[in-house]
Design goal:
It is a single chain. This protein has helices spanning 27-42, 48-56, 105-108, 116-128, 153-164, 172-175, 220-276, 282-333, 335-340, 355-431, 442-469; strands at residues 6-19, 64-65, 73-74, 79-88, 91-101, 111-113, 137-145, 176-182, 185-192, 204-211. Strands 1, 2, 3, 4, 5, 6, 7, 8, 9 and 10 form a ten-stranded mixed sheet that branches. 29% of the residues are buried. It is an alpha+beta fold and 472 residues long. Among the domains are: 3-218, no CATH class; 399-469. Helix 7 runs parallel beside helix 10 (355-431). It is built from eleven helices and ten strands.
Length: 472
């Protein structure tokens, strides 16, 4: 067993993030979010009464300790660890800290094999969050103290990475991002980001922090530094995971929009045929219009949501960069932190090695979503033009129908008026019977009046029939 496989007080922290109340979510959905979050802490012991009590602790503040004065909840068994749940705006955050089985103080300073790291990770995943997944994302932190002055930190970090077994197909070179020194400790960041088609659960993020060996082997300085950094890490990892989550949400929206664009293209392709058709069916056109308006409403909503995810990425990326600078500023303005640290100097920009993520996200995530929104918005304009075209065709056909109806009414009116005149003549003859010498039978006059009335009506109907068959 080499010393690069040993650490003093190896500790694992999981920073887990769940959506508390998303934009447009109902009260029922918000309550379900709350239950899913607290299920990670209480498991089967979570009751409706306890859930209602926990709900009271929530406020609209940006940072709320959800356990009130207790702040943390220690494990109730022989494992050394605790829960620290907080609400950060619209996000639940849960820090779970564990260093394995509880040991007396004198044994905590003894070197331990880093093979225990996998057992701690499994303990957290299987027993402490009951196998649940984070809805937004999660980050892992491993920290400990080297066992000797000549212990190689990089080799030890690689061994921690291998033993932790967080990543699929573990390859240090493929997951390693960057390294840096801060407050006397060596930091190593590793990340396996999900592809555009993968679920957010495939996101893997690990930060390894190794403190140098001290003369007395005490870990109090290292533990105090981590206590100072934990609140910053909770916020920093929140912004990071929310950026990745928003980007993955945008990928699903893009996929849905691309499917809808196929329907839009079908509508647009059929328009020329509909416009040039000899006999237009108003009912079919109206059905097509309803379908187009429905697709337009859904498509416009998805474009709006895509823009929302773009803004979420930009906002959290900006906050991520701010938090990095704040950590460095706090270190410079906090003399206690400087005393806690070892004699090794740290640059004010030491934590900027974590800026690798913000550079990547700016170049890939922001630009990709911006480009997608621009190209997919063109489909919205295309559908809008198609809708206006269909409306125009319907209006024209309805106008034609209205004119034809008016012409028919006019023709019928003329015929009725003509037959009415003839009927008046007949009635006059009936009321004033002629003398036998010049007597004319009333029946021929009656039929003559009917012929006079029907003739213009028939001519009008023939004209309308011919008109319908000719394209104007």
């Amino acid at each position: 067993m080499t010393q690069e496989n040993l650490l003093i007080y190896p500790t694992v922290d999981l920073f887990l993030y769940d959506l508390a109340d998303g934009l447009g979510q109902t009260d029922s959905e918000v309550n379900e979010n709350r239950q899913q979050f607290w299920q990670k802490v209480y498991g089967e012991t979570l009751t409706p009464q306890l859930l209602e009590k926990l709900k009271i602790a929530e406020t609209n503040a940006n940072y709320v300790d959800l356990l009130g004065d207790d702040t943390i909840a220690g494990f109730e068994d022989a494992v050394d660890g605790y829960y620290y749940p907080v609400k950060l705006g619209d996000t639940y955050a849960l820090q779970i800290d564990s260093s394995g089985n509880a040991q007396p103080p004198e044994k905590q300073l003894l070197p331990q094999e880093i093979g225990c790291l996998e057992a701690i990770r499994k303990e957290i995943c299987d027993r402490r969050i009951h196998g649940s997944n984070a809805t937004i994302g999660q980050s892992w932190l491993i920290w400990g103290q080297l066992t000797a002055n000549d212990q190689d930190a990089l080799t030890t970090a690689k061994n921690c990475y291998q033993e932790f077994k967080l990543f699929e197909n573990c390859q240090w070179e493929g997951n390693f991002q960057k390294t840096g020194e801060f407050l006397g400790a060596n930091f190593y960041e590793l990340w396996q980001h999900p592809s555009d088609r993968e679920d957010i659960s495939t996101n893997r993020h690990l930060l390894i922090c190794l403190f140098p060996h001290t003369a007395d082997g005490s870990i109090s300085a290292a533990a105090e530094i981590m206590t100072l950094l934990y609140p910053d890490f909770i916020q920093l990892f929140r912004f990071r995971n929310k950026v990745i989550w928003a980007y993955q949400q945008s990928r699903q929206l893009k996929s849905d929009l691309k499917k809808a664009s196929v329907s839009i293209q079908n509508i647009v392709d059929k328009l020329p045929q509909q416009v040039t058709a000899a006999n237009l069916d108003l009912k079919d056109l109206q059905k097509n219009l309803v379908k187009s308006l429905t697709i337009f409403s859904i498509y416009a909503n998805y474009i709006s949501r895509l823009e929302e995810q773009e803004n979420t990425i930009k906002t959290n990326l900006k906050n991520y960069k701010k938090r990095l600078k704040k950590i460095a500023t706090d270190r410079e303005s906090n003399p206690d932190a400087l005393q806690i640290a070892t004699d090794r100097e740290s640059s004010p920009d030491a934590l900027l090695f974590l800026k690798t993520f913000s550079d990547f996200a700016s170049d890939k995530y922001v630009e990709q979503v911006k480009s997608d929104r621009a190209s997919l918005t063109a489909g919205l304009r295309l559908l809008e033009n198609a809708i206006e075209t269909i409306k125009g065709i319907i209006d024209i056909e309805q106008t034609k129908s209205d004119r034809a109806l008016n012409a028919t009414i006019a023709i019928v009116g003329i015929g009725l008026a003509t037959s009415g005149v003839a009927a008046s003549i007949i009635s006059t003859q009936v009321s004033n019977p002629p003398t036998p010498a010049n007597k004319i039978a009333p029946y021929p006059a009656f039929w003559l009046s009917m012929a006079i009335g029907i003739f213009p009506v028939a001519i009008g109907m023939i004209f309308l029939a011919i008109k319908r068959r000719i394209k104007f």
